[in-house]
Design a protein that fits this description.
The chain has twelve helices and eleven strands. It is α/β, with parallel strands linked by helices and 326 residues long. Helix 1 crosses helix 2 and helix 1 crosses helix 4. The protein is globular and about 60 Å long.
């Protein structure tokens, strides 16, 4: 058991390091190789990159083999992460799953929807999940191949339209809170940024895709974030960076590989339960009216709050825990 725990910790550590540094590492490596005798490798890859530039927005290039790696089972067991199904999602239609909260690195959403470690295909046969990420990440060399192999796609209208127009059986997962929500994730708090976000509802109406709320209980507990006071220089810098680059740089700490008392990049082994709610059927409206968008947004918020209240007790939260939506 000790060996398995150590292997699980290693699997999570490599995942965190990949998430943080994989894109930067290969960008610098390919640039460096241009000035060495291996310059042809960089040129060949950049030529391939140009020819393949539209693939992320056309469904990507998933690898069922990579999604079933044993390393993802170790990743799941480290926390552990569990997928809970509350209703059937027939593969005869498309779905837009709103994933909450964002957390620091979306550990629950990654395990549940980008790997088969939690048994998504067994729980929802016939559905193909696609986790939508910041579009800029798919411009990073080599990293883009890694993202696509897990079934990730850019969170752009062109990309999501392509999936939802490709016939039934697609489950597009959107982390609705985005970068803003990542700045407000702290252990013991449940704060969502949802009130002003209606693009995913409009998208659902345009394609007649059912809306499904998803809540990852425990997502905010795996890291402690360094929070800056509102109006401070560093807080303004984070918000400015979010506006320009699309993501907010967070300062966070976990534990070290050798001790839970030391600071490090390894998340705390806190249980995460990804609960997939009931679908909200949405009519097909190619040109939805504002009133329709508001109506289904309100239904979605209500369903999400109900999902949280029904499952917070079984997921280890006290009955007094509240969900704050701004």
């Amino acid at each position: 058991m000790d060996l398995r725990k150590q292997l699980a910790a290693l699997s999570v550590l490599q995942w965190v390091l990949t998430f943080l540094f994989f894109g930067l590492f290969f960008s610098l490596l390919l640039l460096y190789l241009l000035f060495t005798s291996f310059w042809s490798l960089s040129l060949l890859y950049f030529a391939w990159w140009i020819l393949d530039v539209d693939t992320p927005t056309k469904g990507g290039r998933r690898s069922p083999w990579l999604r079933r790696w044993k390393i993802w089972e170790l990743h799941r067991d480290y926390f552990p992460i569990k997928l809970v199904k509350t209703a059937e999602l027939p593969s005869t239609r498309n779905y837009i799953l709103g994933s909450h909260p964002h957390g620091i690195i979306c550990a629950g959403a990654f395990s549940a929807f980008c790997t088969e470690a939690c048994g998504f295909s067994r729980a929802f046969p016939g559905l193909t999940p696609s986790l939508a990420l910041l579009a800029g990440l798919f411009h990073l060399p080599v990293y883009r191949e890694y993202l696509m192999s897990s079934g990730m796609v850019p969170v752009s209208k062109r990309s999501l339209d392509f999936l939802l127009q490709g016939g039934p059986g697609h489950a597009v997962v959107i982390v609705v809170g985005g970068a803003t929500e990542s700045l407000d994730c702290n252990p013991g708090e449940q704060r969502l940024h949802l009130s002003g976000r209606r693009g995913f509802v409009r998208l659902a109406l345009q394609h007649g895709a059912a809306l499904v709320p998803v809540f990852s209980f425990g997502e905010n507990d795996i890291f402690r974030q360094v929070r800056f006071p509102p109006g401070s220089f560093f807080r303004r810098l984070q918000l400015r960076f979010k506006q320009v680059a699309g993501f907010a740089p967070c300062l966070f700490v976990g534990r070290s590989f050798f001790s839970s008392r030391c600071w490090g990049l390894l998340p705390q082994p806190s249980p995460i339960t990804v609960v997939v709610g009931k679908p909200i059927l949405v009519p097909l409206r190619p040109y939805p009216k504002l009133e329709e968008v508001e109506h289904y947004h309100a239904l979605y918020v209500q369903a999400l709050q109900q999902l949280f209240e029904e499952h917070k007790g079984s997921c280890g939260l006290p009955s007094s825990q509240q969900l704050f939506i701004t």
